[in-house]
């Protein structure tokens, strides 16, 4: 009887040792964290690339509108015409390009400000682009700048600033716990992996045109 039991136990042990039905489960458990890390990583970094491209297109639209509208900074009026540093100074005739010589046109101080819906130009631009901007964006995340460029304009002609619209102070939010997937796979959790990251600098510049409304210019 003892021999029969030992033989049966040996036979069952041999069968158990040869049984690999659960081997795939072990392999699946080892591979799953890596698969999840790659899968959700592709999703999140794809989202980052998508938002960047769409937001960049929105900046082109915002800048194009800003070049043909009044200044987006409240209580700021840019000069209407290019003038000499002093009346009659420089010995140049009206129509001379500003870059033809030194002191042909009077330099104008740069102007810069964050967007505010109280300004009519910002109020016009914001509805056109807000749907293309990252989640959480507000008009204050836009910065409008008007800078003097001596290569633009001529003496006695309209002042032509370089208009720049910049998207600033925004962060991209990951939706996947990438660091947790690394730890799940037996690795060391990477500090900062999957944390919010700031968007890279994004701005568009164009030479200004008529800074009044079309029917007023």
From TrEMBL:
Pfam families, sorted: TadE
Transmembrane spans: 21-43
Matching InterPro entries: TadE-like_dom
Domain of life: Bacteria
Boundaries of every TadE-like domain copy: 22-64
This protein's UniProt keywords: Membrane, Transmembrane, Transmembrane helix
Protein's name according to its UniProt entry: TadE/TadG family type IV pilus assembly protein
């Amino acid at each position: 009887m003892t021999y029969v039991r030992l033989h049966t136990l040996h036979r069952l042990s041999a069968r158990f040792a040869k049984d690999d039905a659960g081997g795939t489960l072990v392999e699946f458990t080892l591979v799953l964290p890596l698969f999840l890390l790659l899968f959700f990583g592709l999703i999140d970094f794809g989202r980052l690339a998508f938002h960047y491209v769409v937001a960049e297109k929105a900046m082109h639209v915002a800048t194009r509108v800003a070049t043909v509208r009044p200044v987006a900074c409240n209580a700021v009026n840019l000069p209407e015409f290019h003038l000499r540093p002093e009346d009659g100074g420089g010995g140049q005739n009206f129509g001379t390009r500003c870059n033809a010589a030194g002191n042909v046109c009077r330099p104008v101080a740069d102007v810069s400000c964050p967007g505010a819906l109280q300004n009519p130009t910002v109020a016009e631009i914001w509805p056109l682009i807000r749907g293309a901007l990252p989640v959480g964006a507000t008009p204050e995340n836009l910065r409008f700048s008007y800078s003097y460029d001596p290569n633009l304009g001529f003496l006695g002609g309209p002042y032509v600033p370089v208009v720049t619209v910049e998207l600033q102070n925004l962060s991209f939010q990951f939706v996947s716990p990438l660091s947790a997937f690394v730890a799940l796979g037996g690795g060391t959790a990477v500090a900062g992996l999957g944390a919010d990251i700031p968007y890279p600098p994004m701005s568009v510049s164009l030479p200004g045109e008529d800074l009044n409304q079309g029917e007023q210019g």
